[in-house]
Amino acid sequence: MTATRSELDADYTLSRSDLAHFTEYGFVKLKNVLSPATIAAYEPEITGKVIELNTQHVPLAERDTYGKAFLQVMNLWQDSEQVLEFVSSPRLARLAAQLLGVQSVRLYHDQALYKEAGGGVTPWHADQYYWPFTTDRCVTVWIPLQDTPMEMGPLSFAAGSHVFEHGRDLPISDESERVLQQALREQDFPEVSEPYELGEVSYHLGWTFHHAPANTTPIPRRVMTIIYVDATMEIAPPLNSFQENDLASWLPGNQPGELISSPLNPILY
């Protein structure tokens, strides 16, 4: 584990073209951020915690579109020292800070997104619909824990859509898929839909629209995500019930108008 821990601490060299791509398009995919050995060292613990902590027990066929999209388990780091090591990676956090152009980033929360065998599409959406933040300086790293071919449902991005304000009031739903599919096409935001190699990760801004195909393979699509925010992020008054829930769940003790400072939001870089 020592070698893999050292990789999680080491710097990753971000090229100027990578940074420019993120700034222009609102996302970037980066190869070889994590080695197969590092992923192999942490995947069993992450998957074990997903199985242990998952609360979705309704059969896949009986769920709504959101429920069919993935199993979603948050803040695994609170239940596992090994997951805490992974989520606290300075390598991953430093990349987030560089891409956001900020001095320091905090953890918002982690989130395992496991698309089961036969799991459905993840509709078009922007993550920041769910988050009570005053600025757009927030980013998600999407870390597949296996090679992720198109048949398994990798993330697809609408390139440049982080500047598009239409549809920001839509939660993940059949409606968001329908409305945004049409609006993004009409505005000529090209869809970038590609497989992920093992060790390849992506970073996307909170307002970058994205979706994912169904998983038509017999194997679950195992993905770990970590959400980072500018360490000086101010909390906005919640605009919907999801943001109210996030404020209570992931920012305990903090109030709108304050800087994020709860014990659940440590500075990672």
TrEMBL record:
An annotated Gene Ontology molecular function: iron ion binding
Gene3D superfamilies referenced in this protein's UniProt entry, alphabetically: q2cbj1_9rhob like domain
Alphabetized UniProt keyword annotations: Dioxygenase, Oxidoreductase
InterPro entries: Phytyl_CoA_dOase-like
UniProt cross-references to PANTHER family, sorted A to Z: PHYTANOYL-COA DIOXYGENASE, PHYTANOYL-COA DIOXYGENASE DOMAIN CONTAINING 1
Protein name, as recorded: Ectoine hydroxylase-related dioxygenase (Phytanoyl-CoA dioxygenase family)
The species this protein was found in: Kribbella sandramycini
